[in-house]
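note to self — DONT lose this again. spent like an hour looking for the file last time. sequence + predicted structure for the chain T wanted, 111 res
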Amino acid sequence: MGAEFSKKLVLERFLNRMQAYAYYHYLDANGIAVSIGDRPLTAAMGEIPFLEITTPLYLEDPAQLDEARSLIQHYRSGLPGVRGAAWVCPDCGEAHEPMFGACWNCGAIRP
């Protein structure tokens, strides 16, 4: 699996795999093609180099780098659409907790 990711641009690295998936889903819901590398080595922390234990998030299209970085900054800032009040998806009516920026059911972006 590692060879297929070697030519892709590393957008971010995460110690927490769940955090990597949160960013993956947020970027994907906003039209940014990303993929997650496989690094299940966190148990070896301290025994191997730091970059070997992180979970990389790869950007599929380098032309989207600026847009991806802008979305990551938006996600981290807590601007409206990322955190706040509970919300209901305008497309399918599914209720969501405040931390979700896209509908888990249909993929629609949070209004």
